[in-house]
Design goal:
single chain; about 120 residues; mainly alpha; about 0% strand
């Protein structure tokens, strides 16, 4: 019984660690000091890991929502002006599928998204 409880706890921890690592990757970051998969965390360590995961999820969702809004703004602007983007960045940004599960919203992408969005806002 104790071995089964320990195994269940380790599997739950592993799932949380993997989720945190995946979110960090999607943000273009490394997960700081990830715990070992084979050591049972105490309640405080587990709570800290869950908090880190929630923070990463919040940051990822925030970036994703920002990117979706900028993409929608750009698409709407091009449609209203009845033109198509001519620059490679604008074309790429409009064609990227932000709903992909593996979409990476790292800082480089967000900087490029902002640049493309600004180019539309200040179109001559």
């Amino acid at each position: 019984l104790l071995l089964r409880l320990r195994q269940n706890r380790l599997e739950g921890q592993k799932s949380i660690i993997e989720e945190a690592a995946a979110l960090a990757f999607k943000l273009g970051e490394d997960l700081e000091d990830p715990p070992s998969f084979d050591r049972v965390l105490d309640d405080a360590e587990l709570a800290k890991l869950k908090a880190v995961t929630e923070k990463l999820e919040s940051r990822y969702q925030s970036r994703l929502n920002e990117a979706l809004q900028m993409q929608a703004d750009m698409s709407r602007w091009y449609a209203q002006m009845n033109i198509q983007p001519v620059d490679e960045l604008g074309i790429s940004i409009l064609n990227v599928d932000l709903s992909e599960e593996d979409f990476i919203a790292d800082q480089t992408f967000m900087d490029e998204m902002n640049e493309a969005h600004q180019n539309v806002l200040f179109y001559p």
